[in-house]
Amino acid sequence: KPYLSMSRAVTVLLITDKMKSSRGLRFRFTATNSRDLCNSSTQFQCATADCIPRNQVCNGRFDCPDGSDEKFCRNKRWSQQLVTNVTCGTPAVEPSVEVADRIVGGEEAVPHSWPWQVSLQMKNIHPAAHFCGGALVSNELVITAAHCFMGLPPSNVVVKLGSHNLVGNDTGVQIRTIFSYAQHSSFAEHDMTHDVAVLKLSFPVNFTEHVRPVCRPGVGQTLPMNTTCYSTGWGATRGSGNSFLLKQARLKVRNFDDACANILQIQPNLRSNYTVCAVDESDSAGPCNGDSGGPLVCQLSQQSQTAPSSNWTLVGMTSQGTEVTGSNTLCGMGSGTVWSGVIPNRRWIENALRSL
Questions:
Q1: Is the dihedral of CA 161, 253, 321, 286 positive or negative?
Q2: Do the beta carbons of residue 105 and residue 133 sit within 8 Å?
Q3: CATH second-level architecture of 115-213+349-355?
Q4: Which residues form the signal peptide (predicted)?
Q5: What residues act catalytically?
Q6: Is the peptide bond before 153 cis (omega within 30 degrees of 0)?
Q7: What's the chain look like in SS3?
Q8: Fewest beta carbons less than 10 Å away: which of 79, 229, 292, 304?
Q9: What is the pLDDT of residue 59?
Q10: Per-residue model confidence (pLDDT) at position 76
Q11: Same fold, 115-213+349-355 and 228-343
């Protein structure tokens, strides 16, 4: 998001996290005599400071990333016009499914190959306000982890969709606020068994090549042991890669008692039958700080009415790592990672999505 200063000096406050990756920071600035970001005679300035042609205002389509071009229209035609026949779990850009590089958090994903990935960001902090991920499951609904909102009102969060580089100039990015929010009533900090939450966006999104929904599991679908799945997110890399670029990690579903039981040292009340345990077999990749709430997706062998077997299906949301020593961060360096299971929480999720 660009800023236009009316003075010759700008004060920038840098807010960092506790991960010491020593990546440094980057600023871009341009000197200008203009006091407007957009040409007011031919362009409309979005609330995000993006410029669009004036003839795109109130045309029934969200052309501004945040939908502000349709916000004050008398005839809100978008509610009917935005319904599209996009099949869930089908990226327009094919993801790479080869073995990952040795980067904490995984390898860089092919841009826009996981189009349901969303970034939850703090309002009014730019450009890198990302703190959690999530998965788009319809044109206005997102599934994430409940712990992402501990002590944080949803009104302080924006949802960014269609991104690959969080600090770059990606085209096709869409931004929404949260209209309503629900978290599992049994979720608690001392018992993260049901670490799941659902969000309804302030406006529906446009389905594009960069923004598409993932499938939700159907009735009767299961997640067999040793299934290959992929986790995605913008988590920390401890200096081994660029965490502003979307990354992916290839993982195998494992038995909880064999690969994830360590988590019971800090979560003794956790009920494993509501979770998914998965491990990166190369001991080099896995979710890390900033990946929480992000999707774990698989191509399940059983077909259902909502998820054909060849389509990508959401099976988990990143919840917590099993490494309970050291810096106590969510960094899967070969250790198991626990996801909140979508299949065991399916009934609550479906009811919550209908009620929002």
A1: negative
A2: no
A3: Beta Barrel (2.40)
A4: none
A5: 147, 195, 292
A6: no
A7: CCCCCCCCCCCCCCCCCCCCCCCCCCCCCCCCCCCCCCCCCCEEECCCCCEEEHHHCCCCCCCCCCCHHHCCCCCCCHHHHCCCCCCCCCCCCCCCCCCCCCCCCCEECCCCCCCCEEEEEECCCCCCCEEEEEEECCCCEEEECHHHHCCCCHHHEEEEECCCECCCCCCCCEEEEEEEEEECCCCECCECCCCCEEEEECCCCCCCCCCCCCECCCCCCCCCCCCEEEEEECCCCCCCCCCCECEEEEEEECCHHHHCHHHHHCCCCCCHHHEEEEECCCCCCCCCCCCCCCEEEECCCCCCCCCCCCCCEEEEEEEEECCCCCCCCCCCCCCCEEEEECCCCHHHHHHHHHHC
A8: 79
A9: 82
A10: 59
A11: yes
Please, are residues 313 and 355 in contact by the beta-carbon 8 Å criterion? Answer: no
CA distances from 217 to 274, 301, 345 (A): 14, 12, 10
Q: CB neighbours (10 Å) of residue 178? A: 19
Task: Dump pLDDT digits (tens) for 2-58.
Answer: 677 777 788 877 766 555 555 566 677 777 777 678 888 899 988 877 889 999 998
The answer to pTM > 0.85 is: no
228-343 architecture in CATH?
Beta Barrel (2.40)
Quote the CA–CA distance of 73 and 330 in Å, as a whole number. Answer: 44
Confidence (pLDDT) at 129: 83
Q: Facing residues of 144 across strands?
A: 197
Task: Of 285, 232, 277, 227, give the one whose Cα is nearest residue 257.
Answer: 277
Q: Which amino acid is at 112?
A: H
CA distances from 19 to 23, 37, 201, 239, 248 (A): 10, 35, 31, 9, 20
| The pLDDT of residue 92 | 94
Query: What residue spans define the domains of the chain?
Result: 115-213+349-355, 228-343
Instruction: State both tokens at 32.
Output: 């200008």
Residue in the block written with tokens 């990756």: 21
What is the reported pLDDT for 305? 58
- Please answer whether residues 196 and 348 qualify as being in contact, where contact means their C-beta atoms are separated by less than 8 angstroms: yes
